Amino acid sequence: MAKKTMKFKTELEQLLHLITHSLYSHREVFLREIISNACDAIDKVRFEGLTNAELLDGDSDWKITIRADKENKTLTISDNGIGMSQDAVIENLGTIAHSGTKAFLARAKEMGAENNPELIGQFGVGFYASFMVADDVTVITKAHGEAAVKWESKGTGSFTLSEADKTTRGTDIILHLKDDATEYLDSWTIRSTVKKFSDFVEHPILFLSTEKDEEKGTEEAKEEKLNTQTAIWLRPKSEIKDEEYAEFYKHISHDMKGPAETIHYKAEGAIEFRALLFIPEAKPFDMLMNNDPKAHLNLYVQRVFISNEFDNLLPGYLRFVKGVVDSSDLPLNVSREILQDNPMLDKIRSNLVGRILKTLAQMKEKNYDKFLKFHAEFSTILKEGLQTDWANKEKIADLLLFETTAKPAGEKTCFADYVENMAEGQEEILYLAGENRRSIQNSPYLESFKDKGQEVLLMIDPIDDFVIPQLMEYKGKKLKAVNKGDRDDKDALKEEEKQFEGFLGFAKDLLDGVKEVKLTTRLKDSAACIVGDEYSMSPHIEEMMRRMGQDVPKRESVLELNPEHPIVKKVQAMYDADKADPKIETYTRLLHDQAVIASGAKLDDPAAFAARINALLAD
Ligand code: ADP
C-alpha cells in the first residue's frame, strides 16, 4: 500500500481543537481513555474467541503494556486485543461515530466550551484525548487475517495511512509527547496515573522500562505490573472508597464527572449475580444527541466481559443507568444471540429494575435536593416506563414531580402528596397539560377548581400528555384532565339550556370545526373554552407536532360557554332580539377565537381575528 493522506471530517478538526484547549488541565485522562480502549479491544477478541478460537491466533495471554522511551520522547501503549483492519481504522479514527456531533459543536460554541471542560467531558473524548499530550500520534494495528496498518496524524486536519510490519494481532498507540508533557515518561507519573484511573482494569497493565547499570554499563529490561486487577464489583462494598467507584464509573462511561448515585449489590436466591450500577449526574453525550431508546449495561459472565449490547438487561426507560452486571449462573460458552434469549436475563432485569426504583425512592425521601437534580435530568425518560412497564407503574409514578396550582412556579409536588391533600369529597386527581406554567396557570379550565379550592397538577413536560393518561389512576384515584371530557352535572343547567337553545344552534352552524356548542359550569371568569375528547391529545401537543412537520388532522371540538358571563348573556339577548343583527356573528366568532387561544392551540386565521377585534374597537 502506498502511503496515502486523508482529511479528517470537518467536525473532527473542530472537536480536536476544543478538546485540546478545554481539557488541558485534565489532560492526564488521555491515559485512561487509551487504556479503556485497549481493554475493550481485548474484551472483544476474547469474547469472539469463545466461539471461534481461530480468531485468537494462539495469543490469549491478555495484557496491556506501556513503554516509555525518554530519548525519543515517545510513550507507547500496546494491547493484544482485536486490532483494526484498514477500513476500521478509517472509520474509527478519522471520523466521529457520534451522529450528533455537529449539533454538539454548535451548542459547545454557544456555551463557551473552551472554558467548560465538563461539557466536553460529556462528549466522551476517547482516543482523541491523545492530542492533548502528543503532537504526533501513530497507531499501528493488526486484526486477525488482515494486513497491518499504520495511521499517523498531528491532529491538524489530516492523517496518513501506510503499511506496517506488525505481525501479531493488536494495537500499538505511539504518542510523540509534546515538550510540556514529557512528565508522562516518568515511571512515577505513569505508575500513579494508571493506579488512579485504571487499577481495577481486569487485564494486567505492564510497565516496561530499561534500567541502566552504570557500573557494568549494561541495560536491564524490567517489567512491572501497575494494576491490582481486582474487579471492583467483586470486592466488598465496605472496602471500596467513593473515589474508586467514581474512577470505575468514568472508565466505563467516559464521563468526566463522577456518578450522582452508586448502587452496588449481590443478588442471591433464584439467580445469583453482582451488580454495580451508576446514575450519572447529567445526561451523557450519547443520550443528549442520539435518541437511542435502549439501555446498555456491561454484562459479564464469570468475570468475562460479554457485551454491552443486550437491550433486555434493563428497560429503555432506565437507559440513563450505567454499570456492570456479572453473573455466574449464565453459560459462558455460547453466542450473544443465544444468550440474549436466556430467560435468566428477565429475572436479572426485574431484580435490577426493583433495585433502581427503590434507590430512587430512597433518594427522594432522604435527599430531596439531589433527587430534584436527578428529576430535572432524567424524569422525561423515566416517564416512558408508565407506558412500558405496567408492573412498576405505580412505583414510577411515585418518582414523578409536577408543578401545581397549590404552589408557586418552580416548586413541585408528587402524586402521593396530592392525594394526601385532596379536598373533601374530591374523587379525582386533576391535571392540566400545557406548554409552560405561565401559559396555563390562568387558564379558564382551572377556574372552577380554584373556586372550589381543589388543587390541579400542571404538567408542562411535552411527554406528559402522552404518558400520564396511560397511568389511568394512582392509588385508586382516577386521573382526569380538566380540559378534556364532560365535567358538568347534567341537570345543573337545564333552565339555561332552554333559554340559550336557539343561539347555541346558531353558533354550532356558524363555526367550522365545532361539533357542539353547549353551556358549562366549569368556567367562572372566562366566557368560553374549547374541550377535547377524553382521550384526545392536548391542543398544545397537536400544535407542537404540526410544527415538527407531522400531519395532525384538525379534530372537531366542543365549544363550551359560561351562561353567567356578561358577554355570553349579551350575545344571547341580541340573538333573541334580532337574529339578523350582523354583530352576533362577530361576537360568536370572537368567543370561539379566544377559547382556541386559551386552549394553547393556534388560530387558523389570525388576520381575521385581528379584523374582528378592530371592527369592535372602531365601533
Ligand atoms: P470510543 O472508545 O468512545 O468508541 P474512541 O474515539 O476512543 O471512542 O475510539 C474510537 C474507536 O476506535 C473505538 O470504538 C474502537 O472501535 C477503535 N479503537 C480505539 N482504540 C482501539 C484499540 N486499542 N484496539 C482496537 N480498536 C480501537
Question: How would you describe this structure to a colleague?
Answer:
There is one protein chain. The chain is α+β, with helices and mostly antiparallel strands. The protein folds into four domains: 222 residues, Heat Shock Protein 90 (2-Layer Sandwich); 141 residues, 2-Layer Sandwich (Ribosomal Protein S5, domain 2); 82 residues, Rossmann fold, CATH 3.40.50; 129 residues, Heat shock protein 90, C-terminal domain (Four Helix Bundle (Hemerythrin (Met), subunit A), Up-down Bundle), CATH 1.20.120. Helices cover 38% and strands 20% of the residues. The chain has 22 helices and 23 strands. α10 packs across α11 and α20 runs antiparallel to α21. It is elongated, with a radius of gyration of 32 Å. Adenosine-5'-diphosphate binds next to α2 and α3. The site of adenosine-5'-diphosphate has 17 residues, from α2 and α3.
SSE inventory with pairings:
Layout: E1 4-7, H1 10-22, H2 29-51, E2 64-69, E3 74-79, H3 86-93, H4 101-110, H5 117-123, E4 134-142, E5 149-153, E6 158-163, E7 170-177, H6 187-198, E8 205-213, E9 218-225, H7 242-253, E10 261-267, E11 273-279, H8 285-289, E12 298-301, E13 304-307, E14 322-327, H9 336-340, H10 343-366, H11 368-382, H12 384-388, H13 393-397, E15 401-404, E16 413-414, H14 415-420, E17 429-433, H15 437-440, H16 447-452, E18 457-459, H17 464-471, E19 473-474, E20 477-481, H18 494-510, E21 514-519, E22 528-531, H19 539-547, E23 557-561, H20 566-577, H21 582-599, H22 606-618
Parallel strand pairs: 2-8, 12-14, 17-18, 17-20, 21-23
Antiparallel strand pairs: 1-6, 2-3, 3-7, 4-5, 4-7, 5-6, 8-9, 10-11, 11-14, 12-13, 15-16, 15-18, 19-20, 22-23
